Model the fold of this input.
Amino acid sequence: MKRAAFALFSLLLVPAALKAQITLENTAPTGLQSLLSLTAGHKLITTFNGGSSLTVYNLDLTPYRTLTLPAAPAGYTWSSASYFTQALFDTDSTTIEFMLLGFNENSGENATSIVKEDGTVLLTVAPGACFHFAGTLNEGPGIFETAQGAKMLIRATYGGPTQIYGLPGHVPCVASCLNGAIDPGFVGVGEQLSPQSGSNAFPNPAGERTTITYSLPVGDMQARLLLHDAAGRVVLERSVGPSGSYVLETGQLANGTYQFMIVGNSGVITGSKIVVVH
Done:
């Protein structure tokens, strides 16, 4: 009897989290390459298949953007796409830029192009190998944030000459900054801040309004506040100044969890979650 009572008592001590189940939330009708982490929130992108475009989806699988692929350099075919970003390859944080890798079957050489979402080519290096993994010169081309701005290293061979490029944007500091280097994942840049980024919103949960506090970098006099719903859609956008606080009216928002981001000239500055309960 004592043993049975002890067993029952032990079961009651099992944390609720250990009883959680893995659940299937949705099934996409097409292949998805990866989860993107942009200034506009978390997104999904279709598998690269050598077509003329890529589709970016919100987490609820509604279409978000279509990325146009330009014609590959003469003699090359596109083999992969990576490093999707809104804050690195130009200073327009409203558009997505990304990197394309082309391959020449005759010469065995690679071509690297950086492209805007409308298909405009910002840079082409041919031949110039650019693997998906970045971070150190030993691993291949890297993208780094330095005191002199963002730098990109591209080389054609392992021990060959390395071209050093200055980038107009900045490498965002995400939850894992990897000592200033870009995340060495398949798609590259991660711009979505973790909820524990140092910014505050009070009260939270919010009813009719909440006050967001933040700190702009030295020299920045204005930034944008973007509010995303649970699906990653931008539901509100406001300009904020250097005062360090902004009163966000939440009375018109539906109950739920939202994520805000403060985006400045150098990309995402800070962000956190807000729960709205009326």
